[in-house]
Write a structure and sequence with these properties.
mainly alpha; Growth Hormone, Chain: A; 14 helices
Length: 409
């Protein structure tokens, strides 16, 4: 048994991450598939993804202040309980309107989007607290190992097990994956509640924006961290532009059903698992900057391959390599931040980092739907569904060239 596995708090946090991400993996397929049962309009479908990611733009900064003010363990529990309740609301909508009349599609999409927005808001608080609490759970010289293991299990449960399980559950009954999702949130809350973390000495409370300014002053004074945050924002916007249309790409170009689409997503999970296990060694061997210079062109190549492919096997391979590159980026950059940022500022700086890094995702999601809707009349539906991937590849290539010239760790 490795040293960190002897730590009870780490075992509980690891288990809670596994269970919670199983639910996230189930909903990652179930939500967009539910949207396609309501409508085939790519703009309306992208609205659900937009609503899910918008809280990262709106609430990242105040969530960081709350994380530094409050008991981080309690915040995680409260957020997971809230997500359980909101997921029960999705189940209620499905049971009340199982056939989704086409004339009222926009109303159902708005209702689902509203719940997705609230779920995303709780996720902002929960994820910021979870990432911030890790340095209090394991020694700093074990952060790469702990992050790698947690991201590996998140990929296993969230992308390897969750999506195909969701496909099977949808075939059984549309509400079934959301029932499982609610159960996983309850289980994760119970595990985190059992953690025992020494109370932190927190400074006297001031206004949210005054405390946030302290985090921004630190971030502005560390140019590399700010660079990484902005680059991550651009990368995530490009990624969400493709993720939003993947469900339609899978159905219309690859001809996959719900269960088959779930299996396709497991290819990305396999890349994440491999990345979680191997990427800490790559980072140790090649160094932080060189590891990032490896990850960026792999992102671009993966998008090109998907944009040109019509075979599920080729798309699966591209998703594998894309997620491997994502894990390499995360292992390097998150461990770098956790080691560098002072504990009393960790929540605020992390939240500001995510404001830049995740705040652009909702716009990427909307852009994906708009590109398909705008291009389809002139280029045809097939080319329109491929276009976001090719544009994302061009954008990722530009980020790589910039990073070669300007990024220094």
């Amino acid at each position: 048994m490795t040293y960190i596995w002897s730590l009870r708090n780490y075992r509980l946090l690891f288990s809670a991450s596994a269970i919670s991400n199983l639910g996230d993996g189930v909903s990652a397929l179930a939500f967009p598939w539910l949207a396609t049962l309501i409508t085939r309009d790519p703009v309306l479908i992208s609205l659900v993804a937009f609503a899910t990611r918008l809280p990262w733009l709106l609430f990242s900064i105040p969530a960081g202040v709350w994380t530094d003010r409050a008991d981080r363990r309690r915040l995680m529990v409260q957020a997971d309980v809230l997500r359980m309740v909101l997921t029960c609301g999705v189940i209620g909508i499905i049971l009340l309107a199982p056939d989704f009349p086409p004339a009222q599609a926009h109303l159902y999409i708005l209702a689902i989007s509203a719940l997705a927005f609230l779920l995303g808001s709780a996720e902002v608080v929960r994820d910021n607290a979870a990432q911030t609490v890790l340095p209090a759970v394991v020694p700093k010289d074990r952060l790469e190992q702990a992050n790698g293991q947690i991201w590996s299990i998140e990929q296993v449960m969230g992308s390897f097990v969750g999506p195909p399980l969701a496909g099977v559950l949808i075939a059984f009954a549309v509400p079934a994956p959301f029932v499982l999702d609610a159960i996983t949130f309850a289980g994760a809350a119970a595990l985190v509640w059992c953690m025992a973390i020494a109370p932190r000495i927190t400074p006297a409370r001031r206004s949210v924006w005054e405390e946030a300014r302290e985090g921004f002053a630190w971030l502005r004074g560390h140019r590399t961290v700010l660079q990484l945050a902005i680059l991550l924002g651009l990368m995530n916007a490009l990624s969400l532009m493709t993720v939003t249309v993947l469900i339609l790409f899978s159905q219309e170009i690859l001809g996959l059903n719900a269960a088959q689409h779930g299996l396709l997503l497991t290819a990305g999970a396999a890349g994440g698992v491999a990345g979680g296990l191997i990427c800490p060694r790559i980072a140790a061997r090649w160094g932080q900057r060189q590891s990032l210079m490896i990850a960026l062109p792999v992102f671009a190549l993966s998008f090109v391959v998907i944009g040109l492919a019509s075979s599920p096997w080729i798309v699966a391979l591209a998703l594998f390599t894309e997620m491997f590159a994502a894990l390499l980026w995360n292992v390097v950059t998150v461990s770098y931040r956790q080691r560098l940022i002072p504990d009393d500022l960790l929540g605020r700086v992390n939240s500001l980092y995510r404001f830049f890094g995740w705040g652009m995702m909702p716009f990427g999601a909307l852009l994906g739907g708009w590109i398909v809707a705008a291009a389809a009349p002139d280029l045809g539906r097939d080319v329109a569904l491929r276009l976001p991937y090719l544009l994302a590849a061009m954008g990722m290539g530009a980020i790589w060239l910039y990073s070669i010239r300007a990024l220094r760790l």
